[in-house]
Amino acid sequence: MYEVIERLRVFISGGCKNGKSYHAQRLAKAQRMGLLYYVATMKAVDAEDVARIARHRKERDGWNFNTIEQPVNIEKILTKCDCGGSFLLDSLTALLANEMFLANGAVNMKASGKITDGLTQVISEIKNIVIVSDYIYGDAVTYTPLTEAYRKSLAHIDCAVAQMCDVVLEISYSSVTAHKGGAVYETIY
Questions:
Q1: Among the ranges 4-18, 45-59, 151-165, which has the highest mean pLDDT value?
Q2: What's the start-to-end Cα distance of the chain, in Å?
Q3: Bond from prior residue into 133 cis (ω within 30 degrees of 0)
Q4: Which of 71, 78, 115, 179 would you call most buried, defined as having the most Cβ atoms within 10 angstroms of its Cβ?
């Protein structure tokens, strides 16, 4: 069913609760070369986060993922793993929230540059990686300046990652659209 490609970088975006994480898990497992890693970036701040983390853990139960909790400084995963393995990084959305909105209440408006630099390093050193983000750009609601800054920062990161990846997928209601690398995606899925 799957063809393993020697080096594959996949970016997946889409709405919340549309099956991105499950699809990403299947892709990462299909590309398994060496150890299989799940890079978890979410820090639970409320009951909904706790439930989402529990659901994701349950979904990957039995899949042999080695979990690396890395809510900030994403480049530090390189010291915690075998870069020849296959990776699933879930998610850029949580990573940005952690880097931008600091525990002391301060806001780091340069977080997107820091994250992009870290991801450039990660993507260049890891052979197989699937990266998940949330598509938060499709509504017409007017937001506060801080929320708009977050959305623009995520867009900056998403665009940079999409450019570095071989395959770019959008998942909406479990339907997959390949925006880049469609032929490659067809061979692996």
A1: 151-165
A2: 7
A3: no
A4: 115
Model confidence at 60, pLDDT cuts 50, 70, 90, reads: confident
More confident residue, 19 or 110: 110
- What's the pLDDT tens digit per position in 119-130? 999 999 998 999
Domains of the chain: 8-188 (3.40.50.300)
Residue among 37, 87, 89, 42 nearest 66 (CA): 37
Q: How far apart are alpha carbons 107 and 180 in whole angstroms?
A: 33
H helix runs in the chain, sequence order: 20-30, 47-59, 92-100, 111-125, 145-164, 182-188
* CA–CA gap between residue 177 and residue 186 (Å, rounded): 11
Cα 28-101-9 angle, rounded to 5 deg: 20
